[in-house]
Write a structure and sequence with these properties.
This protein has helices spanning about 5-10, 20-25, 30, 55-60, 65-70, 75-85. With about 90 residues, it is an all-alpha fold. The protein has one domain. The longest helix is centred in the last third of the chain and has 10 residues, at about 75-85.
């Protein structure tokens, strides 16, 4: 089974060539090559919670609860932890 990146899980349309790129720009998680391969993702696609200026990171900063609780409820993080098991990198 193919492991999905954050833009595929959230359907945000901000990956290169995505439907929302013209209006909102490309998400840095989709283009940051330094993190390529972490948690078996493309660029930072499975490490997005650590990347500045992403929707996920911005949502955490605006969350009315602690970041730890907000992260624990993130659909991307939950899926990546489940799929990576003991190989998961936070």
């Amino acid at each position: 089974m193919k492991k999905l990146n954050c833009w595929e899980i959230k359907h945000c349309g901000k990956e290169p060539g995505g439907e929302r790129v013209k209006e909102n720009g490309t998400c840095p998680a989709a283009t940051e090559p330094f993190f390529n391969g972490i948690n078996n993702g493309v660029n930072a696609g499975r490490y997005c919670w650590r990347i500045e200026n992403t929707e996920c990171r911005r949502d955490l900063m605006l969350a009315p609860r602690s970041n730890a609780i907000a992260c624990s409820q993130c659909e991307v993080l939950i899926q990546v932890i489940r799929e990576e098991g003991s190989s998961f990198r936070l």
